[in-house]
Design goal:
The chain is built from four helices and eight strands; from the N terminus they run βαβαββαβββαβ. The strands form three sheets. A four-stranded parallel sheet has the order 2-1-5-8, covered by helices on one side. Helix 3 runs parallel beside helix 4. It has one domain. The chain has about 140 residues and is an alpha/beta fold. Helix content is about 25%, strand content about 25%. The N and C termini lie far apart (about 30 Å).
Length: about 140
């Protein structure tokens, strides 16, 4: 029987692609790899950003690094690449890293670099949602 394909933030399955070069591996998700066909993705890397890279936060329609560099274009490019992959592979769901300026769903850091949260979605989560892909927050597996 064919397994359901699910996009997943690559950092959640142990790939060292988060901004500081680390990952956010979640053991429960590693167990689910037996039941689903996970497709690991990192929007920031697909958008052309290197790892490690300066931390960034989303505020309104802009994504800025702490030192004031606008990386909105790279975040948008990465989101578009993820959407293109999802369409090619007919993916209907994605498990994305909570609170991320790319992958956060429902709540993201507010753009002040003070760890305060605000309602909203990351750039990739927002684009995938607009295109009918169900977003599942990594918080559900903690």
């Amino acid at each position: 029987m064919k397994k359901e394909k699910i996009l997943i933030s690559a950092c959640l399955v142990g790939l060292n692609c988060q901004y500081d070069g680390g990952n956010h591996e979640i053991p429960k998700l590693m167990e689910l790899m037996k039941e689903y066909d996970f497709i690991p993705v990192c929007p920031e890397q697909l958008g052309g950003l290197k790892t490690p890279r300066p931390g960034a936060e989303r505020k309104n329609d802009k994504v800025m690094t702490k030192d004031g560099v606008d990386v909105t274009k790279e975040f948008q490019k990465g989101a578009e690449e993820i959407l293109r992959l999802a369409k090619k592979l007919d993916v209907k769901k994605a498990i994305l890293k909570s609170r991320s300026p790319s992958c956060g769903c429902g709540e993201i850091e507010d753009g002040t670099f003070t760890h305060h949260m605000t309602e909203g979605d990351g750039v990739t989560a927002e684009l995938l949602k607009k295109n009918g892909i169900e977003i599942i927050s990594s918080d559900l597996y903690l």
